Prior knowledge:
Blueprint: E1 6-12, E2 17-23, H1 25-31, H2 34-45, E3 59-63, E4 77-82, E5 89-94, H3 98-104, E6 109-113, E7 120-125, E8 128-133, H4 144-154
Parallel strand pairs: 1-6
Antiparallel strand pairs: 1-2, 3-4, 3-6, 4-5, 7-8
Amino acid sequence: MKASPMRMLAVDLTSGLGEWSGVPGELVADFLGGASLAARLLYDALLPAVGALDESAPLLFAAGPLTGTTGPAVGRFVICARSPATGLWGESNAGGFFGPELRSAGVDLLQITGKAAAPVYLWLDDGAVELVLAGVVLLTPVSFRLINGLYKGIYPGLESSPTLLALVRIV
């Protein structure tokens, strides 16, 4: 069985860099995506000495194989990391627009490591990766008005905002 290519974006908040890579086909064939693939990737990345809150400990956002398709309950995604409570596997499952938007941005797995010097948000645009200083985002309730303002701040000449834009605030 030849698995379809999956793309992973690894973002290092310390350096401010994002790097695209493919997920090896044998991992995709064995683990499909979502929580199972994230568990396998974390198994390789987490050494016993790496604490849950260490800068080198990855935080993974993973879309399942059907995320963003037209089936029922396909807006789901998982957030996976080492649990600060147990030091073992930690996973949270969520729905909404974020998973499908992540997938439509070309990201099947988003891995975040490091620590930013100041609050930032991740902007993905047609393969380009940018960490932007958050500033007002921390003080403003998440709303369509905020998202529209962010969009017009980055693309000031455009008349309207995109139909869907996902914003996740991790504090």
